[in-house]
Amino acid sequence: MEQPIFELEFKVRDYELDLQGIVNNSVYQNYLEHARHEYLISKNIDFAALHQQNIDLVVSRIEIDYKAPLKSQDKFVVKLQAAKEGNVRIVFHQWIERLPDGKTMIDAKITGVCLKNGRPIRPEDATGMLW
Amino acid sequence: MEQPIFELEFKVRDYELDLQGIVNNSVYQNYLEHARHEYLISKNIDFAALHQQNIDLVVSRIEIDYKAPLKSQDKFVVKLQAAKEGNVRIVFHQWIERLPDGKTMIDAKITGVCLKNGRPIRPEDATGMLW
Amino acid sequence: MEQPIFELEFKVRDYELDLQGIVNNSVYQNYLEHARHEYLISKNIDFAALHQQNIDLVVSRIEIDYKAPLKSQDKFVVKLQAAKEGNVRIVFHQWIERLPDGKTMIDAKITGVCLKNGRPIRPEDATGMLW
Amino acid sequence: MEQPIFELEFKVRDYELDLQGIVNNSVYQNYLEHARHEYLISKNIDFAALHQQNIDLVVSRIEIDYKAPLKSQDKFVVKLQAAKEGNVRIVFHQWIERLPDGKTMIDAKITGVCLKNGRPIRPEDATGMLW
Q1: Which of A37, B5, B24, B33 has a C-alpha 20 to 30 A away from that of A48?
Q2: ipTM confidence score
Q3: Which of C123, C16, C125 is nearest to C60 (CA)?
Q4: Closest CA in chain B for residue A50
Q5: Which chains lie within 8 Å of chain C at 3 or more CB pairs, if any?
């Protein structure tokens, strides 16, 4: 895997498990979103505050490879890379490694777009940030 | 879009919205999963009952294109196609159309695998079903 | 049980189950909230639209007695009664009956308050409705 | 407030917010449940492992007073007290204080029962623990 520019540790919570005793597939998107937002906060980009200015960061495409399931009591880290693609898209590469063994549990590519009043704008115009 | 073999109607519930006033990205996976399980039930394949026999249907990969967001009070239909890929994979094409205008909101491809005691088996051996 | 003034049918979705194979406790609040919002919509009170006018209906207290758990494939109906309490509170009595046997699964009392710009107002001033 | 016997820190995640920009009411039950399970783990009582032995800790009643809403970026601590009530019930007093100002956001009383093969047993027989 490439070098992450941001990482965030989590622990599985039992309400995130489904009847198979593993974290439900949709919950990984919650983990990924929270890690992205914390990454943005670390760059002084506040998702909730931007929304107040009619600027919304939205996901246009998601690809997730599920490699192994997280279970009750598992600790893990979400790692993240980000790059611009074309004029208006940001691509996040995000992957989850279980702790402490470092096993890759999911590998994901998330494409985001920045909208102002519903129209795409260059992310650097909204956020002052160059990816 | 191709012809669906199964479809299921839903209505957005307000707790599914996030602070942008649109359905949170992860919630679409819930809609897709529920539609797949209801499809399987319609074929007499019971996800929860299979789990009791140590047979688990798991998602190995998901791709979702988010085209337009669902909002409060929206009604919509999840449509579904399914096909075998190789020996052990089932690929579901699923898409969501808003009602009544039929606008496509998301388009998704979900790859599933059938596990017995944790090892992949041919889905027809687990379910008696030929896709 | 008393006579409901509103009722709404649901079916359990498998992502709502936890590792015990039963609907997770927190999910019942989702069912109750959705039923309340649909009740309000039936009275032309739109929770999301009111929020745009800085009027928020918020829950100040919740009591739920869990009597029996909902499981995979269960169908059920959420039933509802509403009454004013004092000047600013609305009390919803809500209960869930499994279908088709009518067994009571939970019994809940939800107290709501109507806020305008963050301050309590009489619900009839916000909604035009007399409970 | 009384002295807690256990406490656990959290941070709000944006997917937990609803369109009002505040944590959805049902999500607090997730926080409370996770804190209870972590408390039990700290006492070597593993909710998921007990389920494997047909012993289930279930919630029979919940009361929550919502005093002030958590918002994006809020940090908070869930505090907990536990006591036996009668032969088979454990009552958890749980409350949430925002950080760093210590403001009480919710105050909750959760009643739990310990079931073995679906029948109530004394919690000390299931868990070896005296509350």
Answers
A1: B33
A2: 0.93
A3: C123
A4: B20
A5: A, B, D
The distance between the two most distant Cα atoms of chain D, rounded to a whole number of Å, is 45
Cα(A131)–Cα(A111) distance, rounded to whole angstroms? 13
Q: Where are the alpha helices (DSSP H) in chain C?
A: 25-42, 47-52, 123-127
- 3-class SS string, D49-86: HHHHCCEEEEEEEEEEEECCCCECCCEEEEEEEEEEEC
Question: Cα separation of C121 and D4, whole Å?
Answer: 35
In this complex, the residue of D19, D27, D33 whose CB is nearest that of residue C25 is D33
CB contact under 8 A, B33 and C13: yes
Is the CB of residue C104 less than 8 Å away from at least one CB of chain D? no
Select from A96, A92, A109 the least CA-distant residue to A16: A96
Give residue C18's identity as a one-letter amino acid code.
D
Query: Is the Cβ–Cβ distance between B62 and B108 less than 8 Å?
Result: yes
Q: In a structure prediction context, what are the per-residue pLDDT tens digits for chain B, which is 131 residues long? A: 689 999 999 999 999 999 889 999 999 999 999 999 999 999 988 887 888 888 888 999 999 999 999 999 999 999 999 999 988 899 999 999 999 999 999 999 999 999 998 899 988 887 776 66
Q: Please report, for residues B108, C41, C75, C112, the alpha-carbon distance to residue C96 in angstroms, rounded to integers and kept in the order given.
A: 34, 20, 10, 19
Condensed to tens digits (0 to 9), the pLDDT of residues A77-127 reads 999 999 999 888 999 999 999 999 999 999 999 999 999 988 999 888 877
Cross-chain Cβ contact C73/B21 below 8 Å:
no
- C19 contacts in chain D (CB < 8 Å): 48, 51
C-alpha to C-alpha distance for D23 and D32, rounded to whole angstroms: 13
Q: What's this model's pTM, rounded to 2 decimal places?
A: 0.95
CB A72, CB A14: distance < 8 Å: yes
3-state SS, D8-55, equals EEEECCHHHECCCCEECHHHHHHHHHHHHHHHHHHCCCCHHHHHHCCE
| Token pair 């988010």 in the structure block, residue | B66
CB distance B33–C14 less than 8 Å? yes
Q: Are residues B105 and B76 in contact, defined by beta-carbon separation less than 8 angstroms?
A: yes
Catalytically active residues of C, by annotation: 18
Chain A residues with CB under 8 Å of C20 CB are: 19
CATH number given to C6-126: 3.10.129.10
CA distance B72 to D10: 29
Tell me whether C2 touches chain D (CB under 8 Å): no
Q: For domain A6-125, give the fold.
A: Thiol Ester Dehydrase; Chain A (3.10.129)
Whether residue B20 contacts residue B80, with contact meaning beta carbons closer than 8 Å, is answered with no
